[in-house]
Design brief:
39% of the residues lie in helices and 21% in strands. It has helices spanning 14-25, 39-43, 58-73, 82-85, 91-100, 114-123, 147-157, 172-181, 186-207, 265-278, 306-310, 329-345, and strands spanning 4-8, 28-32, 48-51, 77-79, 108-111, 128-131, 141-144, 214-218, 225-232, 235-242, 256-257, 282-289, 295-301, 314-316, 322-324. Bound molecules: adenosine-5'-diphosphate and magnesium ion (MG). Adenosine-5'-diphosphate binds next to strand 6, strand 8, strand 12 and strand 13.
Length: 346
């Protein structure tokens, strides 16, 4: 019996390579559109669904979790499965998740009531880090130096709220540096600017404001880079990301470093163990080091920049053996998916 894999296509996402790899392997696959009203009946004849959904696409934020769950209910193998993705782009959910599996995480304080948050601020020590539940590339992460700043943020969190997609001109220096590194042409970029601005406005309107909660973390000082460990099945890929100059934030800085001397086995071991407890097919972990030297998880995510993972010179397995060679994460995901389809058939 042949295997049929349904792939939701989004240009410049994991789906490009999934489709190409299926073709290389001779695996029957079909493009589906998860936004279609009849998507579930289309999936009825498939064995698996692959969908790299994104946090910046309003359609995805609205229906991806439901479609994944519904497809699982229908008996499909899905990537990402619910275990890997119910907490995607939701740092509040991740706090509960990491607590549930007893993972070593950065001290995190979530308040759903304004008064409780204000009461906590009275005795909290500063600086702290304030985050929105949504967001990537450090866009919604800021340092809170004083009690007054924290009070103002809490009032806003339970009042007007925050836009989840920051203005296109925010973090402009980093964007400009990355753009130059890629050999970008300034005129082309400027021409695209109105479109990008329009897109941010539309997405913010559709997704709605972030409010009704306040999220703080202990500030871990002195981390000049964070450690990104990406687990896919029995493989762990790792690299580090330098913080922006004059800033404490690494994510989105573009300063990737593949020096293996920077990767401590502890981070890899913790990532494997936590991914296993979560039941995640794929999980990227952001690690920071606490003042006492412990590796602590800041956030987790089922999806990531594929090229950054591919550029790792090899990966570890869960017995900590090193396997040299580059690998596209999409290939690893597909390999595991085909394997689970095979073992399901017996
Ligand atoms: N509690 C913290 N203490 C110190 N630095 C932090 C802390 N949390 C995050 N950072 C830094 O900020 C960056 C962005 O934070 P993160 O929570 O990973 O948000 P994002 O979802 O935008 O990647 C991290 O890569 C890390 O360098
Ligand atoms: Mg991060």
């Amino acid at each position: 019996m042949s295997t049929r894999i349904a792939i939701h296509h989004r240009p410049d996402s994991f789906s490009d390579r999934w489709a190409a790899r299926c073709a290389e392997l001779g695996v029957e696959h079909e493009r589906v559109n998860c936004y279609d009203c009849d998507i579930m009946s289309r999936l009825a004849s498939a064995d698996a669904l692959l969908w790299h959904f994104a946090h910046t696409i309003p359609e995805d934020t609205l229906v991806a979790a439901s479609i994944v769950k519904a497809a699982e209910t229908m008996g499909l193998v899905v990537f990402p499965n619910t275990a890997s993705s119910w907490h995607f782009d939701d740092k509040v959910a991740q706090k509960y998740l990491l607590d549930a599996v007893g993972a070593p995480r950065i001290g995190t304080y979530v308040f759903l009531q304004r008064d409780k948050a204000l009461e906590w601020i009275e005795s909290a020590e500063f600086p702290k880090v304030f985050k929105l539940a949504r967001g990537a590339g450090s866009a919604n992460v800021r340092l809170v130096r004083t009690r007054d700043e924290a009070i103002a943020l809490v009032k806003r969190a339970f009042g007007a709220g925050f836009k989840p997609i920051p203005g296109y001109l925010s973090d402009a220096t980093t964007r400009y540096r990355q753009f130059r590194k890629r050999g970008g042409r300034i005129l082309t970029k400027l021409r695209r600017l109105p479109g990008e601005l329009r897109k941010a406005i539309v997405v913010n309107r559709l997704i709605g404001r972030e409010r009704g909660y306040a999220y703080f973390q202990d500030f871990l000082p002195g981390n000049v880079f964070d450690t990104r460990v990406t687990v896919i099945g029995d493989r762990a890929f790792a690299f580090t990301r330098n913080v922006r100059s004059g800033d404490f934030r690494a994510s989105g800085s573009g300063g990737l470093c593949y020096d293996l001397a920077r990767i401590k086995p502890d981070a890899v071991r913790i990532a494997f163990e936590v991914a296993r407890k979560i039941g995640a097919q794929s999980m990227a972990f952001d690690f920071l080091v606490a003042p006492d030297g412990r590796y602590l998880i800041g956030e987790v995510c089922y999806a990531y920049n594929a090229k950054a993972v591919y550029d790792c010179e090899g990966h570890w397995d869960s017995a900590m053996n090193w396997h040299p060679g580059h690998m596209w994460p999409e290939d690893a995901i597909l390999e595991d998916l085909l394997e689970s389809l095979k073992s399901r058939r017996g």
